[in-house]
Each structure stands twice: as C-alpha cells, then as structure tokens.
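Sequence in, structure out. Go.
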Amino acid sequence: SWGTGWDTARGFFTSFSFVLGAITSMASGYLGMKVAVYSNVRTTISAQKPGWTACFNTAFRAGAVMGFALCGLGIFMLYATMLAFRVHYPAPEQWVYLTECLTGYGLGGSSIAMFGRVGGGIYTKAADVGADLVGKVVHGIPEDDPRNPATIADNVGDNVGDVAGMGSDLFGSFAEATCAALVIGNSIGLTGGWDAMVFPVVVSAVGIVVCMLCSFIATHISPVKSEAGVETALKVQLISTTVLMIPSVILAAKAFLPNSFDLKATVGNDMVTLTPIEAALCVIMGAIGGLTIGLITEYYTSHTYKPVRELADACKTGAATNMIYGIALGYKSVIIPVIVLASVIYGSFSLCDMYGVSLAAIGFLSNLATGLTIDVYGPVCDNAGGIAEMAELEPYVRDKTDALDAAGNTTAAIGKGFAIGSAALVSLALFGAFVTRIRNASAEAGAEELFLNGVNMLEPLTFAFLIIGGMIPFAFAAMTMKSVGLAAMEMVMEVQRQFDEKPHLLDENPTERPDYDACIAISTKASLREMVPPATMVILTPLLTGIFFGVNAVSGLLVGSLIASVQLAISMSNSGGAWDNAKKYIEKAAPDSDLQGKGSDIHKAAVVGDTVGDPFKDTSGPALNIVMKLMAVLSLVFADTFYAFNNGGGIFNL
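Output:
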C-alpha cells in the first residue's frame, strides 16, 4: 500500500488474507487427496458387487466430499475474513479498502494452485508416461500391472495432479472471481448497503445448495443401472445444476439487491444504474456459457462422437497421422468456446459494465461443487482400476472400473473446459479490478487520473507488452512440457534398469518385487525441482513489468497473456483428452474388427498419441489457467506499488 503512503493496517490485512487463502487452498487439496485415497479402495470393493449403482455412488460421493468441502470452506473463510475486516472499516465509504485487502485471499489461493497444478502435473505425467512407454509399448504388459515399477507412482500421481491440483486451481478461480467482483462493485455498498455488496458471495452460497439438491438425482432419484447410464448421470448433474441455478439466482438477486443501485463505471466518470434482474442475467449468462463450453468439450473429447472416432481411424496409418489429426482437432475445438466466451463478455459488459463480467465469472463457477465432484470422480475410478489390477481381481472388476473411468475421462475434459472458461472471465474481471484500483490510487494522490478513458492499446508501450504477454503462455507451456519429458526420461531409464537387472519381473508369476520407491522418488524430486522456473517466470513477469515499465505496460501484458492462454489451454486440453479416448476406443474393439483392439500396431500408434497428450491435457493445458489468473491477481494486489513509481510510469518512466 505504498501508492497512498504507508498504510500499515491495509498492508497487514492484505498479508493476513494472503495467508488465509494459501492455507485454505492447501487444506482443500489435502482433504481431497485424503478422501480420494480412502475412496478408491472402496470403489474397487463395490465394483465386485453385482450392478453398477454401488460402485458409481461410492466414487461419486468421494468427489462430492471434495466439491462441497472446498466450496464451503472457501465461502466460510472469505466471508469470515470480510466480517473481521468490517470491524476496522465499518463505514460504507471505507469498504473500498476492505475489498482491496481481500485481494490477498485470491492471490494466496492462486499461488498455491500454481505449485499444486504445475508440480502435481509434472509428478503424475512423469510417472504415467514412463510407465506407458516401457510397460505397454516395449514389454506389452497391461496398465497398472504390479510388475511395472512405475505403477505405484502413476496411481499416486493421479491424486496429486488431478485431485489436489484441480481442487486448488478451481478454489483459486472461485476466490479471485469473488475478490474481483467485490473490488469492482465496492461502490454498490454506498447505495445498496452490505447485503448488495456481498451479492457475489451469495451467488456462490446459493450454488452449493443447488448442487446439493441435484446430487440426489445421481444417487437416489435416478441411480446408475447400466454402463451406458454412467456418462448420462454425470452429464445430467451439469445440466440440472445449471438449469436450477437460473431461478435461484433471480430469487437471490431480488432478495439481496435493492430495486436499483449505482455503480461507478470502469471507464469514464459516469455512474451506472443497475437492477437486480440485470445482475442476475450476468450470472445466468456465465452459467449457460460454462455449460455450453462443457458440452462442446465433450463433443470433441468423447468417443461417442465423430471427432474422436476419426482420430482412432487415423491410427491405422501410424502414430504420425494420429498426431496430425489430434493437433488439428485441438485447434478446431477452440472456435466455438471462444465465440461463447466473447458473447458472454459482450453481453455481461453491456448490461452491468465490468461488474457484469465478474458476475459472469462467478456464474461460470456457480455449480463449482458439482464440477469438482465430477472431476474427482475420474481419478478415484482410475485408481480403483489400478487396485483391481494389482490385487489380481477377476477381469470383470477391471472392466467395470474402466467403464466408470472412461466416463470420468470425458467429464474431466468437461471440467477442464469449465476451468479454462472461468479462468478467462476471472482474469478479465481481475484486469477490470486492476484498472479500477489504479484509478482510485491516482485520484487519491490528487494527480492526473490514469485510465479515466480506459486503456489505450495504441500506446507504444502498451502494444509492445501486448505482444510480450502473448508469448508468456508459450514459454510457460514449453517449460512445463520439457519438464515432463525430462522426468519421463529418468523414469523410463529407471524402469528399464529394473527390468534388465531383474529379468524375472516380466514372468507371469514373478518371484521378485519391483523397487516402487525409486520411481516415486524420481517423480517427487522432478516435480519439486522443475516447477520452480515456470512458476517464477509467471510471478516475476508482472511484478518487474509494473515496477520498471509502469501500469500501461502491465495492462498490455495482462491482455496479451489472457488472449493467448485461452486459445492454447483449450487446444492442448482437448487434443490430450481426444488422444486418450481414441486409445480407449481402440482398446474396446475386438481383435478381428477394423481397429484390431489391444496389442495391435493401431493400438501402439494410439498409445504414442495418448503419451504425448498426457502433458498436453494434465500439465501444460490446465496450468495455463493459473498463468492468466495469477498474473492478473498479482497485478491487482501490487497496483498501489506500481503507481508509487513515478505515478504509474515505472522506474524507466518511458
């Protein structure tokens, strides 16, 4: 809080909320992993029982514990912090400082998410790629076979990357979306009071209740009775929560917002007069936009539809054509989600200025509890299959868990679509909050008000950094992909060394036991070592840009990284998801069919695609969400600091 002189209270409160956000993020990740570890064994045991209801419900409820605990914990901690800060800032005129102190909460959540997502992604994919390349491709032993030394590391990695990483990522999105809406909408408190200002938190709370009611559809009202019912049950969850959110948000807006309330425009000095219905419409646009992106993602990544089946056909002519088709599929899958995002941004901004965009971001995340339930369900089923294989249970148990996992794979891709879409809106909302905060800082300093007429992209410095911002996601993706490659090479060497030194490991009933610990150590050390450079780049870039080049340069950097990250994240996630499901589609085929099934050359080509797709969909792609969010929330938290250098001109004052 330099921009307006030293304000110790604001500095302390921001630091305190940062610590709280970080602790909440860590707690939710730890909780999710704990639940997943307990539940995967129970899912395996349930899969031995006749019927599909018991095993599906066990995995689904495991996800629900994570989903509801994370959302409940996030809202509770955020609102409790707001009430505590309100003791120091009781007057509505002071709530602008209260909301600015809260931005630390989002930064804390996002910082942990960066390490959880990148570190977890490197851990899980180093093990997965290593296990696949040596086990399946070279020696032809099944996935999760206990003879493979990397199999334990692979299963642990599913929990680290897909449960803890995804949980902390979406918690970060929730915290930042709420903080951005509160910073942009703090002036609502002047005319609408406390209830109106905390409306963004109310929407998330309503979302929890809606998700809770809808969860009974999958477990009680219409339980899963067959393999075909698994994917339907998960899809119904997403659709039903979105549909039920529409009337719920309208009622919440009517109850908590006054008949009309004023909001200071992000650009210019006008006051915008809003109504509860307009605010509710922004949330609804976000919720429907999220569902649309989710369903489009499903179309491109599920083997029920044409794109993945075409990809499986491409494997007939080898791995190269599979790669070409897969990359093209990823690029093509960007078109509709980006148009949907653009429409949501235009519609919500037209209705409620930048506050509308932040509400749309919260709308995207309104059924977060259900999104997380479905996300955690996937790795639980995956590990249940691994346990069935390692425990040498009857083949039908593995077939059952594989069917549950295949549906989980598609829904995980849908979850990633949600996460990327929400991250785009959140980072745009945070950018709006950054502009608002710079305007406040310059107005308080009594200097010329910066960004009064918006950000001018034709300023030479702004445009130069727009180009640099567009490069950041590519540099980040390159670093994370290379990290997975290096760690996977170490893993391959270690697995092959064990097979060479203990040739009896490959016997049908081996007398020797693999050294699982050595592979776990490789993944752990690689993830801790390799996550530092990309995370450092993302954290230092906006800080150094703001301090040396000023706020115009930061504006260009944030917009450039947002635009490039969205496109790259969607294409990488969908390419990876499609390669994975094309492989699964080929594995389901009979040996005398067109695709020749498991063990054939077509299958080997699909495994190569899946192996390349692993870091695409589970390391670099999803971690790009955090690139755009973390850079934006860092800039927001340090906005006053940037302004302190030559009134926002930076040290170089260009």
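Check: The chain has a mean pLDDT of 91. DSSP finds 19 helices and two strands in the chain.
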